[in-house]
Amino acid sequence: MLRNRLQEMTDVNDVSQHPALLMQLTRDVQNSIRILESGYPIDRYTCVMHAFDFTEKPDYTAIASFGSGRIFAGATFIDWLLARNHLIAVPHGNAGDLVLYFSNEQFEHIGIVGDRARIISKWGTGHLYEHEALEVPSRYGDVLRFYSALSYADAYNYFVEFAEENGMQFE
C-alpha cells in the first residue's frame, strides 16, 4: 500500500505539493521517509546525477547540454556502466555504496546508502529523500542490487567514454 501511495504522490507533477502529500500519507501509512534539504534546485538534477555527484558540475553540464541533451546521466548510462562491469556488485550496501532498483530486470532508480543503511535518493523531478530501502514509489521495482560507490573522477571519466561512444567528439 505504501509504495502505491508513493507512486500516486510522485505522479503529481506539481512537486511543491509533494511535502503536504507525504504528510498526509504518513498519517495514513506508517513510514520513515524524510524530505532532505537539497543544495541545488530540485528541477535541475536526477537520481543518477545525484548518485554520481554530477549535479551542477560544469564539466558534466557541458557534455549533457550539448546536442539537445541527448547524452546525459540516465538509465542508458547506467545500462552502459553495468554492461561494461564498471559497477562492482557488493552483497550488502555500506554507507556510501550505491543501490540500484530494477523492475523486470530494467534499471529504474538509484540511491546512495547512508548511515544506518538508510537510502538517500532523488525521486524523479521531485525532492531528495531519506528512506528505508523499499520506501520508494512502486514504479522503481522490487529488485535491489548494491554496488561499490564510484569516485566523481571515475564516474565522470566513464561518462566521457559513454558520450564518445554515443557520438560526442572531444578535441
Low-confidence stretches: none
Main pleated sheet:
7 strands, antiparallel
Number of strands: 7
Q: How many independent structural domains?
A: 1
* Order of SSEs: HHEHHHEEEEEEH
Quote the distance from N terminus to C terminus. Answer: 52 Å
User: How much of the sequence is in beta strands?
Assistant: 15-25%
How many DSSP H or I helices?
A: 6
Coarse structural class? alpha+beta
List the keywords.
32% helix, single chain, 171 residues, 7-stranded antiparallel sheet, alpha+beta
Give a description of the structure.
- By secondary structure, this protein is α+β, with helices and mostly antiparallel strands.
- The chain has one domain (about 35-165).
- It is built from 6 helices and 7 strands, in the order ααβαααββββββα.
- It has helices at about 1-10, 20-30, 45-50, 60-65, 75-85, 150-165, and strands at about 35, 90, 100-105, 105-115, 120, 130, 145.
- A 7-stranded antiparallel beta sheet has the order 1-6-5-4-3-7-2.
- α1 (about 1-10) runs antiparallel to α2 (about 20-30).
- The longest helix has 14 residues, at about 150-165.
- The radius of gyration is 16 Å and the shape is globular.
- The termini are far apart.
- The relative contact order is 0.20.
- The model has no long low-confidence stretch (mean pLDDT about 95).
